[in-house]
Amino acid sequence: MPMFQQLRSSTKILAQKNHPSLHPDEQVDFERKYREITEAYEVLSNAKHRVIYDTYGMDGLKNGVPDGNGGTIGGGYIFASNPDEVFREAFGRNPFTEFFDFQGQTKKECAEHYTEFAQMSIQAPPEKPAPEKLDLECTLEELFNGATLQVPIRRLALAPTGASTYEVTDTLTIKLRRGLKEGTLIRFPRAGSVRPGQERADIVFTVRTRPHPRFKRDGDDLRYTATITLGQALLGTIIDVPTLDGRTLSVGITDIVRPGYAKRVPGQGMPIVTAPPAPPPRRPTQGSPRPPACCRPPRRPPRAACRPHRPRWRPC
């Protein structure tokens, strides 16, 4: 369990167990304990305070730490917060006042209420936010040949207290298959921002094609526009077309070319994306139902039945 989650879990259990409302006969002592628990959580959940506390203890927080020149820097920490406010900020609500009023109840009744409360969830289930939609601009070469892209994204992450957010930068690795179409959606589950009271959002990329200087994509076809002279249009010519994978395709024109003339070259457009092949059928394992007799291969005859009978020679 990560350190911060362990801190939250331990604080929640101790705060519920030592809440003054559960101990009306010893309320002063348990108010002190409850305050110490919430003060410890406030210190340990703050990264800066935790480093000072781990090195110099509470004295370093209150009186400062050595500055290397014989003096001190920092200090002045005082826990002046309301313990219930600290608990509400960290966990979303006061541990008891919203559910039960323990005034005038015996310890046994309080314990019964505490047992019922311990089985309840302090926080409501986090909501699933809408996915974050981003455009993924790709070159025509990347979509033709396939590519692996490293895409930086900015998202929101929760602060250690769980009540605020800050911005971080992540990098997602996206593998483009050959022939992906314009508008294809690529989803990354739980890779987006997270906010208090919500799950981490998904990120959905939409494939967009950047304009290309030579080709224009039309579905799975590639259109190339060539400019020729009048003599070439009347007598025929050969047009060299540089392809997206680095080859040079020579296209012979023998027809009389008019404006808008088009010649189709089969098999030289974008790769066609097909569904992956279905996996082979699984062989029945032990405990699986036996296939019917019509689907089972014929049984081989016993080995002895396949051999011709040879009488054994014996000397006279």
H and E order: HHHEEHHEHEEEEEEHEEH
Given the helix and strand composition, which structural class is it?
A: alpha+beta
Distance between the termini: 89 Å
The coarse overall form would be flat
What is the number of E strands? 11
Q: What is the arithmetic mean of pLDDT?
A: 77
Indicate the multimeric state.
single chain
Helix content: 25-40%
Low-confidence stretches: 97-111, 113-123
Q: How is the largest sheet built, in terms of strand order?
A: 3-7-6
Can you walk through the features of this model?
It is a single chain. The protein is an alpha+beta fold. The protein is built from eight helices and eleven strands. Strands 3-7-6 form a three-stranded mixed beta sheet. The chain has a two-stranded antiparallel ribbon with strand order 1-2. It has a two-stranded antiparallel ribbon with strand order 4-5. A hairpin with a 6-residue loop joins β4 and β5. α2 packs across α4.
Topology of this protein?
Blueprint lengths: L2 H15 L9 H18 L2 H17 L1 E2 L5 E2 L9 H9 L15 H12 L13 E7 L1 H6 L1 E12 L6 E12 L8 E4 L14 E7 L5 E4 L2 E4 L5 H6 L1 E6 L5 E6 L49 H4 L10
Parallel strand pairs: 3-7
Antiparallel strand pairs: 1-2, 4-5, 6-7, 8-9, 10-11
Helix pairs in contact: 1-2, 2-4
Question: Which terms would index this structure?
Answer:
two-stranded antiparallel sheet; 3-stranded mixed β-sheet; 11 strands; flat; alpha+beta; 316 residues
